[in-house]
């Protein structure tokens, strides 16, 4: 069975950078899109970025565009989220997700495989 495991979260000061990684484990992995979402207590899970795993095309939420970069290493079944110029409002648990069907989506419900999440805390 395929599992997604996030890593790279931690505590950073405003203006700093972090790089999150999400590795897929398992003998078989099929994904058309991978995405990052984030969630804070009392709020809905929020779309951050996605990448078409086949074409490499990317999409970003307006709140992170220009600061975050999503990338992939298909050979290693890994997706990354480079986060620069971090702000306190970026503080959240970050989740990676995979969509095993064609097409791309920014909706939580369209992803069928999720990681456990990694905490990112940005201090002011």
Characterization of the model:
The protein has 124 residues and is an all-beta fold. It contains no helices and 11 strands. It has strands spanning 3-7, 10-13, 18-25, 33-39, 46-52, 58-60, 68-73, 78-83, 92-99, 113-114, 118-123. Strands 2, 4, 5, 6, 9, 10 and 11 form a 7-stranded mixed sheet that branches. Strand 5 and strand 6 form a beta hairpin. The mean pLDDT is 93.
Helical fraction equals under 10%
Termini separation comes to 40 Å
Radius of gyration, CA atoms, in whole angstroms:
13 Å
| Class by SSE composition | mainly beta
Task: Outline the low-pLDDT stretches.
Answer: none
Strand coverage percent: over 45%
How many strands, which pairing sense, and closed or not: the largest β-sheet? 7 strands, mixed
Shape verdict = globular
How many strand units?
Answer: 11
Secondary-structure element string = EEEEEEEEEEE
Number of helices: 0
Whole-number mean pLDDT: 93
Which key phrases capture this entry?
4-stranded antiparallel β-sheet; 124 residues; 11 strands; mainly beta
Can you give me a brief rundown of this structure?
By secondary structure, this protein is mainly β. The protein contains no helices and eleven strands.
Q: Secondary-structure map with pairings?
A:
Blueprint: E1 3-7, E2 10-13, E3 18-25, E4 33-39, E5 46-52, E6 58-60, E7 68-73, E8 78-83, E9 92-99, E10 113-114, E11 118-123
Parallel strand pairs: 2-11
Antiparallel strand pairs: 1-3, 3-8, 4-5, 4-9, 5-6, 7-8, 9-10, 9-11
